[in-house]
């Protein structure tokens, strides 16, 4: 009974550890409790974060500001000539769906220059290695070499036609079965010992 409980616990811990690897993270922009404001410092914050596809950016800000996703050129120049998306209202969540770099500024005049700019680098997921599609490697299938007729099977047959030899009471197959049974018992005993040790 206790062994069953332990086994269930081990399974639960293993599943939880696997789930931990793929959980999506909401990143409060600037850090926990921080706001999107002219105080700046967002790139030094984002440089220390690990962004993965599926994560989100959470902007908390005064409605006097906005959040504008822009190109790298606009980010560098603090302009919003090519707006990817514009968000207002004081609370914005932007999902980071794919790997790559994303750029955000506040489009209010002077705010980006004052430090309201953020770039994030979303790292590619490492869990699933990508396989090239449509490319199937054709491994040469080695045909089994034709055995010479009769030679192999004849050697495997026990020779019982020896006129001088006395037939032994224990057949080879009998001793083989006995040794398999012994090793199975050892394996079972070791398995039980491991289960009890957990
Ligand atoms: Cu602003």
TrEMBL record:
Residues spanning the membrane: 176-197
Keyword hit for Glycoprotein: yes
Single GO molecular function: metal ion binding
GO CC terms in record: plasma membrane
Domain Phytocyanin: 25-124
InterPro entries xref list: Cupredoxin (IPR008972), Phytocyanin-like (IPR039391), Phytocyanin_dom (IPR003245)
Biased composition range(s): Low complexity: 158-177
Signal peptide: 1-24
Name of the protein in its database record: Early nodulin-like protein 2
